[in-house]
Amino acid sequence: MCDPCYTAALRHRGRCAGCGNQRRLVFPPGPGATTCADCAGIPVTHACGDCGMEDKLYEKNRCAACSLRRRAAHLLSGGTGQVPAELTAVFEAICAARTPRAALNWLRQGAAASLLADVASGRLAASHQALDTHPQARAADYLRHMLVAGGVLPPRDEQLARTEKWLAALLATIDIAEHRRLVQAFATWRVLRRLRRGTEARPAPRTYTAHARNNIKAAVAFLTWLAAKDTTLADCSQADIDQWLTTDPAASHVRDFVLWAAEHRHCDEFTVAEPERRTGTATAADQRWEQVATLLHDDHLATIDRVAGCFLLLFGQQQSRIAVMTTDQVSQRGPDVFVRFGQHDVPVPEPLGELLLRLIAEGKPHTAIGSPAQTPWLFPGGLPGRPITASHLAHRLRALGISTQAGRRAALLDLAAQVPAAVLADLLNLHPTTATKWMHQAGGDWNRYAAELARTRNHQPCE
Fold first, then answer.
1. Helices 100-109 and 111-121 sit at what angle, rounded to 10 degrees?
2. What DSSP state is assigned to residue 275?
3. Whole-number Å distance between alpha carbons of 273 and 266
4. What DSSP element (H or E) covers 140?
5. pTM over 0.85
6. Residues 213, 56: Cα–Cα separation, whole Å
7. Residues 84-128 pLDDT 10s
8. Number of neighbours of residue 458 by Cβ within 10 angstroms
9. For residues 364-377, b (16+ Cβ closer than 10 Å) or e, as one string?
10. Is 446 exposed, middle or buried (0-12, 13-18, 19+ CB in 10 A)?
11. Which of 15, 276, 378, 450 could form a disulfide with 325 if both were Cys (CB 3.0 to 4.6 A apart)?
């Protein structure tokens, strides 16, 4: 018998026809077995000596789950068998892995596992600073999230911390001292300060810093460009600004820096055009509904992709908001399932409601090692205790042929044409101004109709 068939036979469980218990069914031999070993009078084999579970054993007399618990305890206790109290939550999270064999491989080969052993033994300090300076950056980052999820380390804004580290490296590349001073002041008191205020006002699992970095890089590039022209920021003119804006499509990112510099009297006040906002195209209605039908009825697709795709195509949700949704936003009252995007619960049509309940019950098939057994995230990510990233979620949807921007735009245009702006804002967590703009684009008000009616009447020939 090959190993897959042998493993399947060892794990063939069901309700025994004799005792009614959930056991491995061994008699009669073969896939049609209905009776456990005790009821059939056959010796019980391949039973774990620790928990008694009938399973394929991982090591001598132990199943994979008990082997994982023993080895994790050995790692975290330094061989004493007594796990430190502060690491108990981390220990339980490792033992709660959905696939114990994968966790055992991680304990044996994972770089973060060896760092965890160093933390448990005291060779490595359990602090953000120690992990920041560790040469194995990726392993240290993974361990950081594990320790934060286990309550060993206090949570911090990782994106903001990385941006501060990135800024220090960027400043070191600026040769002109005056430019370095200006960029540091702008980044510290304008860009990073704004990020911190936003994080305090709206705490979220992830702070998006790409726009902030673009503004800082634009300031550096603009000052370098002025220096190449033998011009300083104090001597800059409106003509220089206009010329700079023609150098690159991303040149308009300098607007934030120029406004800040003028406020602090580093230069005169200038007019800097805002970046052009492109509305883009929307997915065709037929294509959108075809994609929705596929997501709802194709059982070969992953449940997380089906739910996330429906949230985007039916409710116009951004992938950044979908990624950080929690299980508390889903509720069930009787047979009906509801989801909350904004202030009110929105009824979910079937079979999407069934998919949502399945997603909560089953979770993500491959949860990161060290994640707590109970996670609040509807879409758990690849790091312990963290949700999926918006970029990875968008990548998964694009693999199904779903354009996130075009699909969301089509959904919002469809909804805005049917629902008043105030209701749309409350239900989908949109700013009232944003909801009104979508309504205008969808032609959901009478303004365009009245204008068109007046125009056609004015052009009608007199009789």
1. 70
2. P
3. 19
4. helix 137-149
5. no
6. 52
7. 889 999 999 999 888 898 899 999 888 999 999 999 988 999 999
8. 7
9. beebbbbbbeebeb
10. exposed
11. 378
